[in-house]
Amino acid sequence: MTRKQKRLAVIAGGMGFIAAAVLLVMFAFSQSVAYFYMPADLAKTPVAPETRIRLGGLVGEGSVVRGTGSTVEFAVTDGSANAVKVKYTGILPDLFREGQGVVTEGMFTAGTTIFVADTVLAKHDETYMPKDVADGLKAQGLWKEGQGQEGPGKQGPGKESQAQEVKATP
Questions:
Q1: How many CA atoms, within 13 angstroms, populate the side-chain half-sphere of residue 50?
Q2: How far is 132 from 116, CA to CA, in rounded Å?
Q3: Which CA distances in Å does 35 have to 10, 56, 87, 96, 165?
Q4: What is the pLDDT of residues 25-63, one digit of tens each?
Q5: C-beta atoms surrounding 89 within 10 Å
Q6: Can you list the alpha helix ranges (DSSP code H) found in 2-85?
Q7: Does pLDDT of 77 surpass 50?
Q8: What's residue 125's pLDDT?
Q9: CA 161 – CA 159 distance, rounded (Å)
């Protein structure tokens, strides 16, 4: 082999290695992607069973039913006539309650319309709403800017914030 052929072989090997690494990274990312949906989106375009998604909206009023152990069933709604029944087994966040913003992650099981969640994220203070949920509710005219800052039960002078203090350990 000449010097030029050796150099081309090294370059070709390096390019092949880089291509293989890029393909592995792309495959890993495609396996962990969870698309965001609201109940109205699911009514328009249902997702295939066993497809991992994020479902967001508001916890339906009067929909929380506690089952045996740590199993909880509730409905996620976006204010429209559409609601998705969610089943979750585990400990719910402290700020989880009816009428509050929530994002769940999981999948529909085959043959049912029940969304089985493995992760539940709840709104963390009076002014926070996940961006995707807030945008969806704004588009439907159900949520307006500043809504979380006023009204009864909201933080005012002399009231403590619900935000929890996190202390760093040295």
A1: 2
A2: 20
A3: 41, 11, 19, 22, 31
A4: 988 877 666 788 888 888 888 888 888 888 988 888 888
A5: 14
A6: 3-32, 39-44
A7: yes
A8: 54
A9: 7
**Per the confidence metrics, is the pTM higher than 0.85?**
no
At residue 60, the 3 state secondary structure works out as coil
Place of tokens 């967001």: 56
76 touches 132 (CB < 8 A)? no
Cα separation, 98 vs 125, in Å, equals: 14
Contact 124, 62 (CB under 8 A): no
What are the tokens at 92? 């719910």
Amino acid at 124: H
Per-residue pLDDT reduced to its tens digit, 86-143: 999 998 888 888 888 889 999 988 888 899 999 998 866 555 667 777 787 788 777 6
Hey, what's the torsion of the CAs at 117, 118, 123, 128, to 10 degrees?
-100
- CA–CA dist 77, 74 (Å, integer): 10
